[in-house]
Design a protein that fits this description.
3 strands; Rossmann fold
Length: 119
């Protein structure tokens, strides 16, 4: 019951913020629709971000996924599958320690650069 009340509260706050700061949400939505985004250090629990991603997934035919860098073991396989199915967010994991993130980001950058060189 507490989770339902919390979810309702988050959704109410989201809808109020969206109404009061519509330009910000329009800009954020446009960025998410026209770019591939990578979420670093935001935890993927922010209800505003999740509700916006869910809205985009449900109301558009955007096929390009976004990505979230998650610390190894921080999320279950069910959760990472849910991120993809519900929000079009693929999970990329990095090492068991936060210090491993730098190495993983460098590897990701190298992979992106090689893909761009082929294109």
């Amino acid at each position: 019951m507490i989770k339902q009340v919390q979810l309702f509260s988050y959704k109410l706050e989201y809808h109020q913020a969206k109404k009061n700061y519509s330009s910000f949400y329009d800009m954020l939505k446009a960025l998410l629709l026209t770019n591939t985004c990578i979420f670093i250090g935001c935890g993927m629990e922010d209800p505003d971000v999740l509700l916006l991603l869910e809205e985009i997934k449900m109301t558009t035919n955007a096929s390009r996924p976004h990505y979230a860098l998650l610390r190894q073991g921080s999320h279950s396989s069910f959760t990472t599958r849910d991120f993809l199915a519900t929000y079009s967010v693929k999970s990329l994991t990095y090492g068991p320690d936060h210090s491993d993130l730098i190495v993983s980001l460098k590897e990701l950058h190298e992979q992106i650069e090689s893909i761009r060189a082929i294109s």
